[in-house]
Design goal:
Oligomer: single chain
Number of helices: 3
CATH topology: Alpha-Beta Plaits
CATH architecture: 2-Layer Sandwich
Number of strands: 4
Distance between the termini: 11 Å
Number of domains: 1
Radius of gyration: 14 Å
CATH class: Alpha Beta
């Protein structure tokens, strides 16, 4: 198993809309898709930075999931509806994590 740490940086002035999209639309779709969200946070001093952790069997499984997600018609409709006035996300950073043997849980 691996954990994928994802950090989203909202476009200036768009953080509230990005948070609303996660809360009202994206989480429900992820649940339907079986995404294993382990935690979800925003940076205390910067609500425009959203960080979350998801679990996958492997890096390849993570990449496959996001490829399918990015072309899912439900996601494309959500993205189009919420980005009529422009994009919400400035950047996405992805880091794959695995626990060393001495710290595996």
């Amino acid at each position: 198993m691996i954990d994928e740490l994802r950090e989203y940086v909202a476009c200036p002035g768009r953080a509230d809309r990005l948070h609303r999209r996660f809360a009202e639309l994206t989480f429900e779709l992820w649940e339907e898709m079986g995404l294993d969200v382990r935690g979800f946070w925003n940076v205390v001093d910067d609500p425009g930075r959203i960080v979350y952790l998801v679990r996958f069997p492997s890096v390849e499984a993570a990449r496959t999931h996001w490829t399918h997600f990015s072309t899912d018609p439900r996601w494309l409709a959500i993205k189009a509806a919420t980005e009529q006035d422009g994009p919400l996300i400035e950047s996405i950073n992805v880091t794959y994590l695995s626990a060393p043997d001495y710290a595996a849980s």
